[in-house]
Specification:
This protein is an alpha+beta fold. The chain contains five helices and five strands.
């Protein structure tokens, strides 16, 4: 088990929300059809600590080249802190990797550009399309975890992914 408290993380301007962002990243991964990418993450009763299922994996041998799935996910959650210490190559994961330590996600002040080559698997495009037909599907589970502005920014990124998936389909 990996425990993340409300202690300051370098670069985090609001450390009190780190546990909520960890939980939000887990929920979003499931919502968009990337379940199994982020280990199960829950909040303590007081929501001051997040607890993530401990997973085994190997550190990647490279730091600059992520997989397209990880690039897509980091764009979705606006993660500004992906490096070789917070993702693992793993055989027992649905996606062949685990994305851990997502505390520096959903930040509004940082404009993360979409990856140059955004690859959207059809299953993810389908889930994103479903979510966008009723924004309450996004707001309801994330309301206790993210601000309205953070949720609106997430919807904007999901809309971009939906549009990009349709462009890919037409190519």
């Amino acid at each position: 088990m990996y425990v993340k408290g409300a202690s300051p993380t370098p670069g985090d301007t609001s450390p009190k929300t780190s546990p909520q962002r960890e939980r939000a990243a887990y929920l979003v991964s499931r919502m968009v059809g990337l379940d199994g990418l982020v280990p199960e993450t829950v909040l303590s009763p007081g929501q001051t600590v997040s607890v993530q299922r401990f997973v085994r994996g190997k550190r990647p041998r490279f730091t600059l080249l992520h997989t397209p799935i990880l690039e897509l996910f980091d764009y979705i959650i606006a993660n500004t802190d992906r490096h070789s210490d917070n993702w693992f190559v793993a055989e027992r994961s649905k996606w062949g990797m685990w994305a851990i330590d997502n505390a520096l996600s959903f930040r509004l002040g940082h404009k993360r550009a979409p990856p140059r080559y955004l690859v959207v698997p059809p299953s993810v495009a389908q889930q994103v399309g479903y979510l966008l037909t009723d924004n309450e599907r996004i707001h309801r589970p994330l309301r206790p975890l993210l601000s309205l502005a953070e949720r609106k920014a997430l919807i904007k990124r999901l809309t971009h992914i939906w549009n990009r998936a349709h462009e890919q389909h037409l190519e």
